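In the current project phase, we have settled on a layout for protein records. One protein thus recorded is set out beneath this paragraph:
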Amino acid sequence: MVAAAINAATPKKRVHSTQKSQRSEAPTKLRPPPLALTLVEGRGVVELAATFATRSILRHAPRGDGHSVLVLPGFLASDRSTKPIRQFLDELGYETHGWGQGQNLGKFYKMRDVLEGLVEEIHAKSDSKVSIVGWSLGGVLARYLSLVMPDKVRSVITLGSPFAADVHATSAKKLYDLLSNEGPARPGDLEQIAGDLPVPNSSIYTKLDGIVNWKTCIAKPADNAETIEIRLASHVGIGVNPAAFWATADRLAQPEGTFKPFAKNGPFSLAYG
């Protein structure tokens, strides 16, 4: 260390300094959320209770044209977890669809092919584009579907979905790798999913997420993209959170082919960051 300091002006040292500078400019690897946040994810039950308590208010959420909406569950979840939001959207006049594949055990590459067929089927029956709402891993799949089927997907709304930056910054990574057994992502796939989408897309997230690092939910700036923060929400509760419900309804109510950023007003305005 002393010798290096004395010889700081030598060419060798200058090369070392340059290399050190280049290393310091490399993006910082994100970490999973703190254990303290993971341990209080059970507060999602409170968010569900809040949704039931505000049902009379949620009935006045923005209404759209009643087009088809496919709702995809998160990792280890099933259609049972998305039943509350599907019922809410049904009451607003939408034609909602669960994914019908049982428990989501990961297996991204297997499921994306299955879901392409499901979108094709829904599109053929309704003769209109399909909006996709995806919770956590379901949102990653939703973004993929919009990339490969822009002629059939109308819009994408994600709820606590880790699609950007370091997608491995999640406390569920080891379990996901074990159950999915698919190995690393194929070259270019993660970059495409994190990039620009050909359809309007809204990422709804919380900075108090105890499962995924919230920075992995931040959408790349674009004319048809936005990020909406829900204060005090949890990862397991954001899909049943009343403020998230309202924001989802507002986004779905936009006329096809148009996009205007969420105004963050209404009865749940204080919940938006």
Observations:
- Residues 42 and 236 are 8 Å apart (CA to CA).
- The chain has eleven helices and six strands.
